[in-house]
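Technical note accompanying the year-one report. For the benefit of new consortium partners, we illustrate the data format agreed upon in the data management plan: each record pairs a sequence with a structure-token string. No post-processing was applied to the example shown here.
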Amino acid sequence: MTALARVLDALATTTGTTARGSGRQHMARCPAHEDNTASLSVTDGTDRVLLKCHAGCDNTDILAAIKLTYADLFNERRTHNNGTRSAVTAEYRYLDEAGTLLYVVERHQPKTFRQKRPDGAGWIYKMGNVRRVLYRLPELLAAVKDGRIVYVVEGEKDADRLTALGLPATCNVGGAGKWRDEYAHSLAGADVVVITDMDTTGRAHADAVVASLRKAGIQVRLAEPCIGKDITDHLDAGGGIDDIVLLGNDTTQDADPPANRRLEATPASTMRMRAPTWLADKRIPTSAITLLGGREGIGKSTISYDLAARITRGDQPGRYLGHPRAVGVVASEDSWESVILPRLVAAKADLTRVFRVDARTEEGALDAISVPADLDRLATLCDDKGIVLVVLDPLMSVIHASLDTHKDREVRQALDPLARFATVTGVAVLGLIHVNKTATTDALNSIMASRAFTAIARSVLYCILDPEADREDRYLFGHPKSSYSPRQPTVRYHLVEVTIELADPTEDEDAAITTSAVVWDGDDDRSIRDAMESSPTDRADSETTIRIVDWLTEQGRPVATKEIIWVFPDLNPDTLRKHLSRLVKRGKLVQPIYGHYTLPDEVGHPHSLGASPDSSASTDTSASTPMGQKGFEAVEALVQSPREGASTPQTPLPPWAADAYDRESP
């Protein structure tokens, strides 16, 4: 039997009349309302039967009246992969004030819902004119009478979950978008909290419920879960009812502001300025989140433990200089015994002031810290132990798995409470985070996942391989974002191996552990952006600069930028200009005249290739600015007569090279 024949036969059996029409289009009496005009259109579609009641009846009610399901509308009945029909996984009973059953909502798997009402002998899958009430109405009325807070959620599953915790909870039948103003009568006099689902439909539904209750003069507040998409996700992640985020205070007022509402203008002159306080001077503020980003293996963890050690010794410039304080470490990637403890020892930390922070279940098992669910407990712990710095290594490890770290809204469900934790406790939070592999010169854009991470952090620190260093184990530590101070200078650093002798090794252990420590090499005048712009591929840059310097060595004369570009057609002109500029900064080349480059010794520069200019020379700008008349004449002579011993250029000059220096002196 085709789906069309099945539906037409069921309609005829239920209504006692035969549908009119032929082929693919028919009109029948609608079984969901008293229909004397055949207002139900029945169309044979491509793979299913399409139903439309022109009086507005819902297809669910129509199918229930003729004892069919949505699967019956398809020519090949839809089943699960194992061939079975959908199964009922839960039933939610709606009772009136006296406890009399009015109707039941069936929850099916895959997730669908069907409504049915008793008829004395069985069930009618049609709501008809049955009275609609709030879920768990008798318990709800008792809670209102006792003055308890009532929670309104979107679905029965969420309501049951809260009820199991002893919290009065309810919802309306049909889910989002099906709230009726008449439901407010059952909540008269109650203190109501509406908990929204974290999607667009859920938020619109919660707003509608709040507006309806306001209109009825009921005290209502809007809240959202800290974790996940609904209150069930929130509870599954370890959150409690006290962890939900209230989005507003008492909202008994109408949607429109009352007439006596007024705005205030406060003169800035009456406000008191408050200077930020620093854990690490001008780089890591207290009472805020700081990110430390960079690729793996570049020393982020080693740097964080170096900072921790300084805090425990009291010798870190900042608020606690001269006052040793405790540090809490939440680490999920490295072993404490083999990695973290040796690094702390190498950094000379006071281990009595360093605390490993874990969660422990009721059964006594260790568990990972979860943000935001554990923040209240973390605040208590920090207060008890005197912890002023919490290191999250990595930050991603504490964000609950139910949150999508690539979506700003979901990331903020974890980071906004974390930021409030820092503000309230005064603790500095240092979160280590990896970077993605996307080619960019913007450090903030390179931080993996959502931009909410760098938006919420008040300071962002960044580690990168030094693209201009002569060795591959030299790095830069920069400051691409600072909300409270000017960005601080970039600092050069490298890592060294440290061997730690074990006091009492077992027979199966080595007598010593090799770990790493950071050595700070001084300030650098480059920003992280400068370093990223110069390192599309770090080692390739070094090879490129060697090629440029070798070729200019062979020329023995100042060479115009255009000529260099012409000689190196495999290099992007903009990239090549950056290489030339960096070589000048490092003293490897000079610009005796604007737009021309040569080796320092070709114009009497005191430093030969490979030597480091002294501090006085490094601040002299004459090498990169146009020279006077004598200097110009000297350069012109070099151009026309290369130094003795210089080899002939290996590549022919471009057509314009002969006229490149035929110009008047400035």
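Partners are asked to follow this layout when depositing records. The mean pLDDT is 82.
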